[in-house]
Amino acid sequence: MRTTFFIFLACLSSLAIYAQEASNDLKLSIEQSNKIQQINKEAYPKFEEIGRNISLSGYEVNRQRKLLLLEQKKSIMSILTPEQRKIWDAKFNNIPPEVNIRESLKQEYDGRIKEWDRQYASGKKAIENDKSLDKKARKEQLKELSNTYKAEKERLKRERDAVRDSFFY
User: Fold this and answer.
1) Chain-centroid distance, C-alpha 39
2) What is the pLDDT of residues 102-145, one digit of tens each?
3) pLDDT digits (tens, 9 = 90+) for 57-108
4) Which domain holds residue 51?
5) 25 CB contacts (<8 Å, ≥6 apart)?
6) Which has the closest alpha carbon to 117: 127, 125, 128?
7) Residue 32 phi/psi, 5° resolution?
8) What span, in angstroms and rounded, lies between the C-alpha atoms of 78 and 32?
9) What contacts 24+ positions apart, CB below 8 Å, involve 127-136?
10) What is the biggest distance separating any 2 CA atoms in the chain, rounded to whole angstroms?
11) Coil, strand or helix: which one is 129?
């Protein structure tokens, strides 16, 4: 985790410079900028929802997220002028891999949250099926498990959101 955080910090400065250069090069109008921000704001909750869906395999999560990103890119491209599209392609089709660290870190946290969800479901089922416990003991254990689950899940979400918010979108 510490290594990931240090990589994140190292890439943050290069990402900020890269994003600013691309924005300056595109010379977006205020209207274009607002539309792109709106597209990004609308896409993010969908992106998060895909990641939270524990019924999807890792492959399916990635596939659906890629489709969403392609849809998002198509929407953005429809806003740009032909000259801006050329600049976009020149800048964003050659992004160095380390710039995508935000997504890698976010996916790592999403995976940890999914795993925590699975562990909670497994633990809950084990307590519910434990016939050696009386009703009161079962209820206490379920409550303790639930409190631990909620606290850890919130911690993971806060860390993931800190990673997400630390990068330009």
Assistant:
1) 16
2) 677 777 788 889 998 999 999 999 999 999 999 999 999 999 99
3) 776 777 787 778 778 888 888 888 988 888 877 776 665 544 566 677 777 7
4) 2-165
5) 87, 91
6) 125
7) -60, -45
8) 10
9) none
10) 71
11) helix
Side-chain half-sphere exposure of 57, counting CA atoms within 13 A = 3
DSSP characters for 71-104?
HHHHHHHHHS-HHHHHHHHHHHTT--GGGGHHHH
The structure tokens listed for 59 are 């492959």
Query: How many structural domains comprise the chain?
Result: 1
Name the token pair of 13.
Answer: 């400065």
DSSP labels, 2-47: HHHHHHHHHHHHHHHHHHHHHHHHHT--HHHHHHHHHHHHHHHHHH
